[in-house]
Amino acid sequence: AEPIVVAIDGPAGSGKSSVSKQAARHLGFGYLDTGAAYRALAWHALERGVDTSDALAVLDAAGDFDYAISLDPDDYWVRVGAAEVTDAIREPRVSDAVSGVARVPAVREAVNAMFRALVASSGRPGVIVEGRDITTVVTPDAPVRILLTAAPEVRAARRSAEVATQDATAVADALHRRDAADAQVVDFLTAAPGVTVIDSTALDFEQTVDAVLNVVRAET
Ligand code: C5P
């Protein structure tokens, strides 16, 4: 049978990656971090010296993008070719370049096809797919669709805590710049019809995971 898809969208720093991963563990589901695919492509483009604001050059780099990602929430890794890039794709240079890569429509179509194939071949009863356009574009027919939001100050604070080695103001600025660039491509701040909003501003991590699990139980 086709796996049950739980689609979760939200902005940077909403906690969607860590929350999705933990909810997947509880459910015995796979976990697909679509942002990691865009990040891996940005890493690959930077590695090849590509100007990531040049759509044609990005598309060219996407042509030989050999990418693999684990769907196992307990053994998460990302590879490009022979290189393990799990940590490298979180570097600020990649975060700064990724919106340029994600802006190219042909790139989005190619990665979306890849996401659907990964879900279909996951071998799991379900997959939590997390990103910006999962509820609207990648799997609009998913039985469970969630928009995970949080107030901008809270998102910036959470992201700063994750990257404690970097200056908090610089982290907040980079996050807001990236959100602004991404918002021109997909509207990830408004819930599409039928999408359940979870606002995690006043929730801690476990409460947010429980809120997601409650929606999954109610809708499957
Ligand atoms: O989720 P994360 O912040 O790691 O995503 C990295 C980038 O990938 C986003 O800033 C956005 O440019 C892009 N992205 C996207 N569509 C998705 C997931 C991520 O455009 N579904």
Question: Can I get a quick summary?
Answer:
The chain is of the alpha/beta class and 220 residues long.
Task: Tell me what you see in this structure.
The protein has 220 residues and is of the alpha/beta class. It is 49% helix and 15% strand. The protein has nine helices and eight strands. The strands form two sheets. It has a five-stranded parallel beta sheet with strand order 2-6-1-7-8, with helices on both faces. Strand 4 and strand 5 form a beta hairpin. Helix 2 packs across helix 3. The longest helix has 16 residues. It is globular. The chain starts with a strand and ends with a helix. Bound molecules: cytidine-5'-monophosphate. Cytidine-5'-monophosphate binds next to helix 2, helix 4 and helix 8.
Mean pLDDT comes to: 95
Q: Termini distance? A: 15 Å
Class computed from helices, strands and strand pairing: alpha/beta
**Poorly predicted parts:** none
The rounded Rg comes to 16 Å
Order of helices and strands: EHEHHEEEHHEHEHHEH
Strand order of the largest sheet: 2-6-1-7-8
Helical residue percent band: 40-55%
**Distinct small-molecule ligands in the complex:** cytidine-5'-monophosphate
What would the principal axes of the Cα set say about the shape? globular
